TrEMBL record:
InterPro entries: Amidohydro-rel, Aro_Compnd_Degr_Hydrolases, GLI/LigI, Metal_Hydrolase. It comes from Giesbergeria sinuosa. Residues 34-305 form the Amidohydrolase-related domain. Pfam families: Amidohydro_2 (PF04909). This is Amidohydrolase family protein.
Length: 311
């Protein structure tokens, strides 16, 4: 059944709604596992979508996110501000506050934010800001504004999450490598997997991580990166095989600097919507040992988002 968008909003034409009734994963997540990349959308009637947004999604509430967390076997979430909410962080903050300490957040902020507002975000559970360079999602923000924000949030012990396409890494390199914080790359910098894991493009990404110990990567979103599938649908236990070598390479070379997340509710997918239970079953293909799984799903996200509890 198609899902709705409440308030004065109409979903973008062709919008794919998140999957209803996901499978129970066959892979059993380690105790304390963190879904370190997911979003909430609205609901629009309560938390209006931003005027500058590039898409209007179906609603995806905090209650629906928490139900998915429990169903899949995660203990915690990191809720990342989605561009459809611009720099209005209220929906993400509301989810963090309602989670009883089980969610932390990544915000989008402008240079006009006051120190007091940053403190309020911190108190709500925000531990990072996201800088988005994907042109179909956001308008350009000057780098001096971003660097100024990075300097301010560094003082709070936060990190910067960056989202970009692989072809843009060379031109963004100098900016990224001068950021003063831990830097977390979304979705491995979106490699073109048809070029192969030994391509120059992916080698540059690995070099970026190798030469900069403050750079981490989310090895998430195979459903976005895959060219040949198979899709995580209909019980498929070996989905997105073309993405596995990329994520596995990153997990094995940088086991202490990787994170994983569902990316629920999967904004802007074009051809299919994955079954989130089967997406979880992707994890042992990229992190084949219990030790790698524990680092990816528990130790690393706890160190970054709940350092006061990390062992
Ligand atoms: O959810 C993601 O990570 C990826 C997105 C959406 C996004 O980043 C956003 O709207 O903020 C994408 O590739 O369209």
């Amino acid at each position: 059944m198609s899902k709705t968008t409440s308030g004065d909003f109409t979903k973008t034409t062709g919008w794919l709604d998140w999957y209803t009734g996901p499978a129970k994963p066959q892979f059993q997540l380690p105790a304390g596992a963190v879904d370190a990349h997911c979003h909430v959308f609205g609901p629009g009637a309560e938390f209006p979508y931003a005027p500058e947004r590039k898409y209007t999604p179906c609603d995806a509430s905090k209650a629906q996110l928490f139900a998915l967390r429990d169903h899949l076997g995660f203990a915690r979430n990191v809720v990342v501000q989605a561009t459809c909410h611009g720099a209005d962080n209220r929906a993400m903050v509301d989810a963090c506050l309602a989670s009883g300490g089980k969610a932390r957040g990544v915000a989008t902020v402008r240079r006009t934010i006051t120190d007091q507002e940053l403190q309020q975000l911190h108190a709500a559970g925000v531990r990072g800001v996201r800088f988005n360079f994907v042109k179909r999602l956001v308008d350009f923000t000057p780098k001096d504004e971003l660097m100024e924000i990075a300097g301010r949030i560094a003082k709070l012990g936060w990190h910067v999450v960056i989202y970009f396409e692989a072809v843009d890494l060379p031109q963004l390199w100098d900016f990224f490598t001068s950021l003063p914080t831990t830097v977390v790359v979304d979705h491995m910098g979106r490699p073109d997997v048809t070029k192969g894991v030994d391509s120059e493009e992916f080698a540059l990404f690995l070099k970026f991580m190798r030469e900069h110990p403050n750079v981490w990567s989310k090895v998430s979103c195979p459903e976005r990166l895959s060219a040949t599938g198979p899709q995580a649908l209909d019980g498929e236990q070996a989905a997105y095989r073309d993405v596995v070598p990329f994520a596995r390479r990153v997990v094995e070379e940088f086991p202490d600097r990787v994170l994983w997340g569902t990316d629920w509710p999967h904004p802007n997918l074009k051809d299919h919507m994955p079954d989130d239970g089967l997406l979880v079953d992707f994890i042992p293909h990229i992190a084949p040992t219990p030790e790698l799984q524990r680092k990816l799903l528990v130790d690393n996200p706890m160190r970054l988002y709940w350092p006061e509890e990390a062992s």
